[in-house]
Amino acid sequence: MEVLPELYSIFQGEVAAVTEYGAFIKIPGCRKQGLVHRTHMSSCRVDKPSEIVDVGDKVWVKLIGKEVKDDKLKLSLSMKVVNQGTGKDLDPNNVSLDQDERRRRTFRDYTSQKITLEAVLNTVCKKCGCKGHFAKECYVQPGGTKYSLIPEEEEEEVAAAGHERQKKTSLTDELSKKRKK
């Protein structure tokens, strides 16, 4: 069996192939290749790995991961944690690698989920006079800004219709008073 470099070791390899998602690097001393994903090519954003490396280039890489998947060994490499001029390790304690891994694990896409309010209190605060909360939950400072819930469209339409009815009734009351005189 071939001797593979140890995890977090640095070596210089040759670019074997460049794809849209990264570059495959030949590991010296064995027939294996490892992948430098485009996110690990540079500390800056890389959209096209072919703009960074070409087939046959010699690059310094750090072995950052070994994974066995479907009876195949997959090796993950990084160029951004190694100085490409000298081969010096820029992340000797693997801190940035841990941070990248944590960021990747905790990200969740909530854009497709709607936020719905379950229940709104039909109350008026005694402290600020706004609807939707109790005085003990009020955060208004003396002389501060008052906030209230935004009425929903249906409530606005009902309120507008009620306001128009009040205007009509007040007009009819005025007309009837004038007629009586």
Automatic annotation (TrEMBL):
One GO BP: RNA stabilization
Keywords on record: Acetylation, Metal-binding, Nucleus, Phosphoprotein, Ribonucleoprotein, Zinc, Zinc-finger
PANTHER family linked: NUCLEOLAR PROTEIN OF 40 KDA, ZINC FINGER CCHC DOMAIN-CONTAINING PROTEIN 17
Cellular compartments annotated: Nucleus, Nucleolus
SMART domains hit by this protein: S1
Annotated S1 motif domain residues: 8-80
Coiled coil: none
Pfam families according to UniProt: S1 (PF00575)
SUPFAM superfamilies from the UniProt entry: Nucleic acid-binding proteins
Quaternary structure (record): Interacts with PNN. Associates with the 60S ribosomal subunit.
Protein name as catalogued: Zinc finger CCHC domain-containing protein 17
Basic and acidic residues bias: start-end ranges: 170-181
Highest taxon above the source species: Eukaryota
Residues in CCHC-type domain copies: 125-138
InterPro entries recorded: NA-bd_OB-fold, S1_domain, ZCCHC17_S1, Znf_CCHC
